[in-house]
Amino acid sequence: MFPVDDNVPQNSWQTYEQAQSAFDKIRPHQTTVSDLRGMGFDPTNSPNIRVLTYLDVIQRFLPNQSVTKADLPPDVRYCLEAKDGCRGFELVIESSKHKRYGNLPLDILGFKKKTRVTGWSFRALLVVQNDIVTYKLASGEPNIDRLEKKIKPLGPFQEMDGVVGRLPGLM
Question: What predicted TM-score, i.e. pTM, was given to this entire model?
Fold first, then answer.
């Protein structure tokens, strides 16, 4: 009776390990953009891949003034200096399942909602200069498993603070 929410990636990878394995096959200074297409990292046909300009790449590597170009890996620095010859590909995959459990009447009325979230997430950033991958970086969560609990002691009346003032005859 409880709602279930699934977020399944539409990529060729159905697990964190598959995504990491494909990413591990990318070799900086050897892998070309056409090679990436065969690996599932095709920005024109693969979902969840964002094409970044060199300005977007700057924002990823220089998020504030405390990080300078001198702090960057040399391959990233050279790419940023190439300006239009530099671009990036950012892959974000999230696979999650949200399953509610607990007391159904309390959940429906909004007093107490318990949700178990399971899944995985994978993020990859590829820096490309002149159609050759020069730098790669990956992060993610191989195993997401968390419990979320929302308690509203007043249930559906918890968020009515703005509604009461607008009711006719009360102002």
Answer: 0.77
